[in-house]
Request: fold
Amino acid sequence: MRIAVTGSSGLVGSALVRSLTADGHEVVRLVRRPPTRPDEVRWDPHGGTVDTASLGPVDAAVHLAGAGIGDKRWTAAYRREVRESRVLGTATVARALAALRPAPRVLLSASGIGFYGDTGDRVVDESAPPGTGFLADLCTDWEAATAPALEAGIRVAHLRTGLVISPSGGALGRMFPLIRAGLGGRLGSGRQYWSFISLVDEIAAIRHVLDRPDLAGPVNLTAPNPVTNAAATKAMGRALHRPTFLAVPPFALRAAVGPFAAELLTGQRVLPATLLASGFTFNHPTIESALTAALTG
Reply:
């Protein structure tokens, strides 16, 4: 297949591109800077343009681009950047794909489990309604921005990804150095649920959804055994042979990251019902196996 990918330099995007090209697929990377390679095509998410003449026909698109949720302090300006990079970028991609002739068969568009808001101990799957809060509102509008592609008859799947476990990036990746230094600990009470997925399973799940014409709409990309923040932190400590008895109080989180602290102190207990029903098998269904894979892979 010829597959367009945005966000190809990110943690998930770069791993996905390696996986696709290793299997002989032709990947076209949409980049925001002037292209420097034959496999790159310019796009401008804020300006609403894609160089479709250079893009040409594609069989599928995987849209992963967006400003990092926890990369910077959550000022009003950065929250606006996070939102616009997702909503405007997705609308730009969806419109461009809808205008292609022939249109691609499928668009996989990133989303997040923040869609469900703070679920507490309540288990949710793809049938649950949206929650409340900044991330829930963002994910709702993010997914709605794919409407032009859906209206053009393109199969659209929303990849509601959890916390991706990798030592080289992602939310949990930033915790590894702290725990190695003996400074890791639960966030707040630690009772908030963290629904995670290993990077290996994230890529395998994306490939699974890409290849299954019957999968559309929301698809939770999370392992089937979510754990609390306290349990995840202890597991990381065991894997790294370091103590994790320290706790980060809410006021310290607010001082460090601003309003994003509210999101770190909430959680989602999410099950991947659609993936499991479609026959997907997880390589790393538990936090322990996901951490082992991240640290030894």
Remarks:
- Residues 181 and 242 are 8 Å apart (CA to CA).
- The chain has one domain: 2-296.
